[in-house]
Amino acid sequence: MNMVQPQGTAKVRSRGLDVFYGEKQALFGVDLDIRAGEVTALIGPSGCGKSTFLRCINRMNDLVDGARVAGSLTLDGDDIYDRSVDVVQLRAKVGMVFQKPNPFPKSIYDNVAYGPRIHGKAADQSELDEIVMTSLEKAGLLKEVKDRLQESGTGLSGGQQQRLCIARAIAVEPEIVLMDEPCSALDPIATAKVEELIDELRENYTIVIVTHSMQQAARVSQRTAFFHLGKLIEVGDTEQIFTNPQEPLTQGYITGRFG
Amino acid sequence: MTEMAQTDTAVRSMDAVAARLKSRYAAERRFRALGLGAILLSVAFLAILLGSIVQKGWTGFIQTQVAVAVTFDPQVIDPDGSRDPLALDTADYATLVRNGMAARLAPDADRNARRDLTGMVSTMATEQLRRMVVANPDIIGTTATVWVLASDKIDMVVKGQVPRQLGAAGNALNDRQLGWVAQLEQSGQVRTTFNTTFFTAGDSRAPEQAGIWGAVVGSFFSLAITLLVSFPLGVATAVYLEEFAPHNRWTDLIEVNINNLAAVPSVVFGLLGLAVFLNVFHLPRSSPLAGGLVLALICLPTIIIAGRAALKAVPPSIRQAAAGLGASPLQIVAHHVLPLAMPGMLTGTILGMARALGETAPLLMIGMVAFIVDIPKSPVDPSAVLPVQIYLWAGSPERAFVEKTSAAIMVLLLFLVSMNMVAIVLRKKFERRW
Amino acid sequence: MQTLLLAVTLLLLTSLAFRAGRKRAFAMADGAPRNLHSLPGYYGSWVALWSGLPAFAILIAWLMLEPSLVRTLVISDLPAAMQELPTEKIDVLINEVRNAAQGHATANPDLAIAADHYIRLRQIGFAAMTAVSVAMALAGAAFAYRRIEPQLRARPRVEATVNIFLVASSTVAIFTTVGIVLSLLFEAMRFFNMVGFIDFLFGLNWSPQMATRSDQVGSSGAFGMVPLFTGTMLITLISMVVALPLGLFSAIYMSEYAQPRIRAIAKPALEILAGIPTVVFGFFAVITVAPLIHSAGEVFGLAVASESAMAAGIVMGITLIPLISSLSDDVITAVPHSLREGAYGLGATKSETIKQVVLPAALPGIVGGVLLAVSRAIGETMIVVMAAGLSAKLTFNPLEAVTTVTVQIVTLLVGDTEFDSPKTLAAFALGLMLFAITLGLNVVALHIVQKYREKYD
């Protein structure tokens, strides 16, 4: 199966990717490589298609009625939209964190254990315990919640909830973690913690993050892709995009002329 | 952790996921099948219900008639030849019918056989001959072939609702009568026609003479009362609560009340009707007036709740616009809000009426179970209503009433379906997106 | 009919009053409505209110009071021997008098005289009612008409009247509840004076037929509601066993899986099922389901009563499927989409998401819905009246015949006009119990559902 590629090779590769919602086309011929072991930020004004692109990678768009995808999108060279691809298996490999923290109305422990349970990742209870603890630890939440693992996940603060959702996602041991504006519902302190966490997670996971905040993109990502009206306008190293954009549209956006 | 080891665990982990997939998808399919099964079973119940009603009831719309060669014997009708109308009116026409039957089937019938012959045709036949003679006394002395209504037992056998074998379930005919039926059918003296009696007559102990018209009229009067009372009250309450009422304990209480009334068993409303409308106000028992009032209380919550939903759906901007032009609160409601909410309110009202039309239990409480032959002329006459008529017939032992019950149910369902259709059309036509 | 004609006449008068009032207002304003305080139509309405309201108030009051007045007068004119009869006997006589008045001949000469008296009284009454109400309509209109002047604040006055009508309408719901509670309580208290409350609540025997003679009352102990209660519970349980899985799975399938084509068939089908009157289901239970269960029982060598709790319970379950399904559908769709996405994002299959995330989150709402369905099942009448039978046996065997609270209420009251025997009053005591139980269930259920809604709003 797949090997962990050296940093810089394409983990996810899209070529001429079109997405339609019913009559409306949301993405126009996107060519984009997501490199392994990096944080890639997708930026652009709202409705530009960045979230759509993100949701193609783990086929969350399948849940939308009338959504249609054309072009090619591959994960480790395998077509994500191939008929033989199993969505469940794909999502075990490609985890996701959502805009609004959405912990299940269950205990903190059960929230994190849910993924490993359904995928049968743990042979016994102690192994499951270990997965839960490690995941919480990696998400930087263990210290705060270790005494109340049986309390409801919905009782945590917003920032804690979002880190719980991250812990829940990485407990499945995905290769890629998709983050759809993970900090938009959080206050600045919680945001800082999550951003710190994203930076740490980079060691083990390939991360794609959609964000509204250019500062955030600049802080956490190594590469940045700029979308506008369903088209990928420019992609490059984050530093280059923010200091020396090649396209006038990109420049206009990052300097705040529109957005 | 070295890179190699990490890869290893990752691969092993993905294999574990793949290994479990088969059983997980099997569980998925099972779950989905359960869901589909539940839907199909529910739809099947409906199909069986409607199917069995139609299968048992469609013959209720046709009736069997027997041709009898009647000799209008002056000796029987008018022995002294006076043609006195009173004598003609009270003459023994039953004998004419019996003689006519006997002449054809069993000329030398003894007393028992003659009784069996009488059981073949409805007592309505006697009435029919009386009317013929009273209308035209000149036919006395002539012989004519008259198609008369068959008795319910013959009717059942001819229409195939009960088996022809002697002693089969529901078959009340004896050997001799079965033979006669076969004889009559062979000579073409039995026919089936559209059952007008069923749509024009009131209740009757004899199934072949029973009809639903009395119950339909009773239902109409009841629903008219219900509509007259509950629609204005319901709309006024909805308007008050939605547009004018302050938010305080009193209005909270009213709201809680309405929600709870909507869930009170209807039989309890019947007890209220009995204790208050009959025993305190002495409204006439078994009357559509009392019934309609009870039904009005039952569907009031439905109308109020639907009315409030319709008022809520009118956007506040309309009210603000009207208020900005200096309209008084009542003018705002009467000129702008109410017309926009009216389709929704009407829809709710029709649905409430449909529910009231099918309501049975509370009407039993106020005495609408009486056996009433006459067609009611006003809302204070004793009367049956359709669902109660169904209940009464369902409890009758005669096999022929099964068919009448089912046929009455078909009529009731037809009314309900048309009312719902009107509601749906109304909703579709006036549906507005803000 | 006559009364209807009178009402139409009064309405006509009212509309004439409206026109007259509007016309006079116009005239006073010299054809320029801006000289008036209110629009001319309001002056018309004001006059119409003065004309219609008092007249109709008198009409309604008259209609309510006349029957008992006529009755008293007719009774006072009967021979003394008849007057001394007990109330219920007099009721019968009065009925006969009414029938005689409608043209059915009576054999009793005294009653024939009374019938003539009755007819005369009714005629006088109607004439007087017509005269008084029409006079009232005219007088009211005239009074208001004369007071019209440009400064008259017609609109606020009309609006105040409408307001009173609105407020009064909204209290009807309260009066209904109060009426229910009071009438049940009042009659039930009379019952508990004859039969002890404790005996009623915990007695194991129910045979009201034995206690028709007043000297037997209380000592017989035949008014124990436990068998009725267990019968009700048994049938409710059976119905929930049918309705809960079918309704819940239907809702899940419809909201999560069904293609539009299936939904287009199944949704209306469930709505039709919900709209069919229960008397139809009762007939279905008796004529189709009960024989089916009976013969199925014979195949397995089980003795099934022809009126079994099973038949009634199953059919009642069918009637509850749409209720459970629509309530569950509501709560399932109310579970936020983000929770589903969370599970899908972890690679959960659809059924795993539903079973492990959606259903647990929707559980309180579903419990609330089930409670409402239970309350409906307990109060449901026609199906059990027709299919469950009358034998008050203390049994949990679903194949036997049982009876329920509602069946007994109907049986005790139908065809029985005596109102003082414990047999009749027992129905009100049962009604009180029924009301209390269903009310309690509804309050709890609505509370749970409310809490659930707040959680996801």
UniProtKB/TrEMBL annotation, chain A:
Enumerate the Pfam families for this protein: ABC_tran
- Which InterPro entries does the record associate with it? AAA+_ATPase, ABC_transporter-like_ATP-bd, ABC_transporter-like_CS, P-loop_NTPase, PstB-like
Q: Which residues form the ABC transporter domain?
A: 12-254
Q: Does the keyword ATP-binding apply?
A: yes
Against NCBIfam families, the record matches this protein to: 3a0107s01c2
* A GO molecular function held by the record: ATP binding
Keyword Transport belongs to the record = yes
On the tree of life, the source organism's domain of life is Bacteria
Q: Which GO terms describe its biological process?
A: phosphate ion transmembrane transport
Name of the protein: Phosphate ABC transporter ATP-binding protein
Q: Name one GO cellular component term.
A: membrane
Organism classification, top ranks?
Answer: Bacteria, Pseudomonadati, Pseudomonadota, Alphaproteobacteria, Rhodospirillales
UniProt source species: Paramagnetospirillum kuznetsovii
Keyword list (alphabetical) reads: ATP-binding, Nucleotide-binding, Phosphate transport, Transport
TrEMBL record, chain C:
Pfam families xref list: BPD_transp_1 (PF00528), DUF3708 (PF12501)
The record ties this protein, via PANTHER family, to: PHOSPHATE TRANSPORT SYSTEM PERMEASE, PHOSPHATE TRANSPORT SYSTEM PERMEASE PROTEIN
- UniProt-listed InterPro entries: MetI-like, MetI-like_sf, Phosphate_PstC, PstC_N
What's the family?
Belongs to the binding-protein-dependent transport system permease family. CysTW subfamily.
Q: Mention any one GO cellular component term assigned to this protein in its UniProt record.
A: plasma membrane
Q: Could you tell me which PROSITE patterns the record lists for this protein?
A: ABC_TM1
- Top-rank taxon: Bacteria
Entry's Gene Ontology molecular function annotations: phosphate transmembrane transporter activity
Could you tell me which residue ranges the ABC transmembrane type-1 domain spans? 229-445
Where can this protein be found? Cell inner membrane; Cell membrane
SUPFAM superfamilies listed in its UniProt record: MetI-like
Name assigned to this protein: Phosphate transport system permease protein
Its primary localisation, in coarse terms, equals membrane
How does the protein associate with the membrane? Multi-pass membrane protein
Report keywords, A-Z: Cell inner membrane, Cell membrane, Membrane, Phosphate transport, Transmembrane, Transmembrane helix, Transport
Task: State the protein's purpose.
Answer: Part of the binding-protein-dependent transport system for phosphate; probably responsible for the translocation of the substrate across the membrane.
Q: Name one GO biological process term.
A: phosphate ion transport
Q: What is the species listed in this Swiss-Prot or TrEMBL entry?
A: Paramagnetospirillum kuznetsovii
Positions of transmembrane segments: 43-65, 124-144, 164-186, 228-252, 272-293, 299-324, 357-378, 425-449
